[in-house]
Amino acid sequence: MKTRYEKFGIKNTFRCPKCFAPLSLSGQSLVCENGHCFDIAKKGYVNLALGRGGSMHYDKALFESRGTVLKAGFYSHILGAAHLLLAETGAKRILDAGCGEGYYARALAAEGFDVYAFDLAKDAVALASDGGTPVKLMVADMTAIPLSDGSMDAILDAFSPAHYGEYRRVLREGGHTVKIIPGENHLKELRRAAKPLLRHSEYENGADVEAHFASHFRLVKTVEAQETFPLSKEVLPHLLRMTPLLFGVNTDALPLDALGEITVAAKLLVGRKE
After folding, report:
1. 17 in a domain, yes or no?
2. 141 in a domain, yes or no?
3. Considering the domain boundaries, does residue 19 fall inside one?
4. How many domains does the chain have?
5. 182 is in which domain, residue-wise?
6. What is the pLDDT of residues 27-53, one digit of tens each?
7. Mind listing the pLDDT tens digit for each residue in 17-31?
8. Are the C-beta atoms of 81 and 223 separated by less than 8 Å?
């Protein structure tokens, strides 16, 4: 594996978030011709976010809990579906947009993809770097992705906000975006238990999300992935902490004693840049 610094030594790929000039590796930093310099952290990621921070809800504890749930296999069927769809596109260089703690990015890199990944939350990117990884990890802003025009073969957006204008810019012609959104039955048991305390007990209309996606890419395929898992008392608090569904909700007031299983459901949209 390349060192934590050498993996960033790719020409004509990274661009300066300040002046948009190409960035190149110089020692332990990425620098541009205008003298802007971004040091690569010892853990193996680079901060290109220009000082912006993530949401108050998305702190280290949330990403640690999400990591626990993901490592327990609750989203493995969705990862498998995404892997298959990306492989079908023939993509080699993939961007994981809004990568969080790196679950999808690290798994795809292990399968041989050349993976770039970013999140605005520094805590998440630091966790994604733990133990070393070939993934080119960045703290970066979704609205100004620090990558060159047409530099990516495919983009994976897993349960993350999207900026389709930026996605189209960094995708090559004929490149693909795989957008993962909650399925109709996603966390249905938890939504049922928490319904009296939720402002919206149903997820955003999937047809609206799909139509918005299709206005930027030619929709070539949709795939659904759904599994129901037994839910232990050890994993439950991590699930409660990680899900945006419960942001602002007093989880101590939820009737969760009978919550013995959980359904994890997603729809994967595959779009082509044309």
Report:
1. no
2. yes
3. no
4. 1
5. 53-272
6. 999 999 999 999 999 999 999 998 765
7. 999 999 999 999 999
8. yes
